[in-house]
Design goal:
With 297 residues, the chain is α+β, with helices and mostly antiparallel strands. Helix content is 42%, strand content 23%.
Length: 297
């Protein structure tokens, strides 16, 4: 495996961690939103029953029941009554506005009063957060006692301000975590996985210490640069074999996004000089193919 693959795998590991962290955060936010919505919806139904209760009282009925509020769709509810009632249109408008003002999500809604068979709309009006957009007609008119259903349809809402605040506030935090993770993986040049098991090579009379980047022979030590070490490591793992020029370029430079030409020849030349410690070792050019580390016995 190429050393560059180790670097990429490290980056992908941290990237995966960041994605997982983001996914967990989104799930937590979703559960939070769901829990909040469930509470708000339950509170809304209580307010709707309260509207029905006050309408019965205004009709002179203090004993009959407000039937269970029926949810017609995700945003539409119907208030139903056990017995017929009468109501004044302006009282209905004032009652709904006063009570639904306690619902933080009920800024815009339409109210329709239907007869019980649902064939006719007896009365209707629209309330908007922007008061000039309210549509209210036929005030101060009493409706005859009959069986009515009151349908209230709320305008669908997106995320509320609190939830948006949590999500938007969390994005910079996630970005900061990602920045820290990616910076912690500094682009450094590594070695193939094989070096973990083989750190020292014997090349003729020269000992090549890949881990510490040194050549040692007859008590003499020569330091190698990182690039020289990686280059010699490829040769040391396949002595007396031709290594294609394209492979050397790819494994040493191209995998890191840098394409070289004369740089390879320059490093080969530097390695040759450092390997002169043993005349039986040489890096030779194989024309049209690449290079070979020749070790004469």
């Amino acid at each position: 495996m190429h050393f560059s693959q180790n670097l990429l795998s490290g980056k992908y590991k941290y990237l995966f961690g960041l994605i997982l962290l983001s996914f967990i955060s989104i799930i937590c936010a979703a559960f939070s939103i769901t829990g909040s919505n469930d509470f708000d919806m339950a509170r809304r139904e209580v307010l709707l029953r309260r509207i029905g209760h006050e309408l019965l009282l205004q009709s002179g009925d203090s004993t009959s029941r407000v039937l269970p509020v029926e949810k017609i769709s995700g945003n539409e509810y119907q208030i139903r009554f056990e017995k017929p009632l009468t109501f004044k249109t302006d009282s209905l408008v004032n009652t709904t506005q006063r009570l639904l003002a306690k619902d933080p999500l009920a800024n815009d809604y339409v109210v329709n009063v239907l007869n019980c068979d649902g064939t006719d709309v007896v009365y209707g009006y629209a309330i908007s957060k922007n008061k000039k957009d309210d549509i209210i007609a036929c005030k101060r008119r009493a409706q005859p006692r009959a069986c009515y259903r009151i349908s209230i349809k709320f305008k669908p809402k997106g995320l509320n301000a609190t939830t948006k605040g949590y999500i938007l506030g969390g994005l910079p935090f996630l970005a900061f975590i990602g920045f820290i993770f990616l910076r912690s993986v500094k682009p450094r040049r590594g070695f193939p996985n094989d070096i973990r098991n083989t750190n020292v090579f014997t090349l003729g009379s020269v000992m090549f210490d890949a881990k510490n980047r040194k050549l040692i022979t007859n008590g003499k030590t020569i330091d190698l640069t990182g690039t020289e070490t990686r280059l010699l490591l490829i040769f040391a793992m396949s002595p007396n074999e031709t290594i294609e020029r394209s492979r050397l370029q790819k494994e040493i430079w191209e995998d890191e996004g840098v394409i070289v030409g004369r740089s390879l020849d320059m490093f080969i030349s530097k390695l040759r000089k450092k390997l002169e410690l043993d005349p039986n070792i040489n890096i030779v050019v194989i024309r049209g193919k690449g290079y070979k580390l020749e070790i004469s016995v």
